[in-house]
Amino acid sequence: MNRLEQSPHDPAFIQNPYPFYDRARAIGPVVYWEDYGMPCAFDAATVNALLRDRRLGRAVPDDQRKPVPDHLAPFHAVEQHSMLELEPPTHTRLRGLVLRAFTSRRIRSLTPDIEAVTAELLADLPEDRAFDLIPSFCTQLPVRIIARLLGVPEAMAPDLLRWSADMVAMYQAGRTRAIEDAATAAASEFADFLTGYIEQRRNSPADDLITELIAAEQDGARLSTAELISTCVLLLNAGHEATVHSLGNAVKCLIENKTPHSAFAPDAIATTCEELLRYTPPLHMFDRYVYEDVDLGAVTLKAGSRVGLVLAAAGRDPAVYSDADKFKYDRGGKPHAAFGGGMHFCVGAPLARMEMQIALPALFARFPTLTLAEKPVFADSYHFHKLDQLIIKG
């Protein structure tokens, strides 16, 4: 197996990881990424095949489970019931119950909420000076919609944001004890709040997702309180974090490429958003455990090992996309892997897409001559590719 070194903290890589992806893809299909200590797949065919291969999964193999340190116990208590970290049959049961509540009807019913919150946030943005779009718009829209979806007070948005940011930081390269302590505190606070709120909803049902999750039943089984807590945390962390940075990355890309307003037309916006997700996704890599040997020709993934699936590299594979390194808002056609694939395909993808398809046309209608007031800089947060700030001017 070919081997490559590339620190995820290298400044050049942080700002543009795609040249490294191109090198790795050229000598693949699987390359041993020294800095991560595991093989990684970079081409679209291999990434998509492994996403759907049931010989791989997210759950830690039994013989690799380690005792949970005391300082991480509250974080682990939430994570151990997360669909993201489970395999069948537990994953199948949980996902089936969640999908009974998280229906396409419920997602569509959020359209007026997304439109209203978008309009409210845009009305508050300044017209006569530069401002940072990330905290004022990209962050606020998805967290307020998640709050409405779950049925928790929107006044809790600051707490939800803090909990989400602190917990998601656990998945970044080079986490520290300080990051672990913050994530543990966030998990504990979030779980304490949800425990009380779920009990409140059991006694006083409402038209919200938490009530639907409580009522969801399949073959006589329902979600336990611990599973309800983990599911709500997952919906906030995975859905919110991805949408924030999908919006930020999208606006940067659209401005830099001088995208015409026709790209935001009702019959074009869905295609535009899919190209944005292919070209500049927020999540660049996800890993899997290998449960059985997987033969990939010149390379065999050994049972018990881990493999990284570089979703962003798959989205720029020239074997699949012509002029893969160019943003073409009207590209259409072939799907991408920005939301993963297989049985772990992102359950919140329809909501994320709808938020983008509503928010981006509204933003560029409000500011038709939007420009970058400062050069955008990506954060040292791999495997997320995100902007901590996006200074723009209308």
List the helices and strands and how they pair.
Elements: E1 3-4, H1 11-15, H2 18-26, E2 30-33, E3 38-41, H3 44-52, E4 56-57, H4 73-79, H5 90-101, H6 104-108, H7 111-123, E5 131-132, H8 133-138, H9 140-150, H10 157-168, H11 177-203, H12 209-215, H13 225-256, H14 269-279, E6 285-290, E7 294-295, E8 300-301, E9 306-310, H15 311-314, H16 349-366, E10 371-372, E11 391-393
Parallel strand pairs: 1-2, 3-9
Antiparallel strand pairs: 2-3, 4-6, 5-11, 6-9, 7-8, 10-11
The percent range for helix content is 40-55%
Question: What top-tier CATH class fits best?
Answer: Mainly Alpha
Order of strands across the main sheet: 1-2-3-9-6-4
CA-CA gap between termini: 50 Å
How many structural domains are formed by the residues?
A: 1
**Residue ranges: pLDDT <50 for 5 or more in a row?**
none
Categorize the overall geometry: globular
What is the strand tally? 11
The ordered H/E elements are EHHEEHEHHHHEHHHHHHHEEEEHHEE
How many DSSP H or I helices? 16
Main structural class: alpha+beta
Give me the Rg, rounded: 21 Å
Corresponding CATH superfamily:
Cytochrome P450
Q: Percent of residues in beta strands?
A: 5-15%
The CATH topology, please? Cytochrome p450
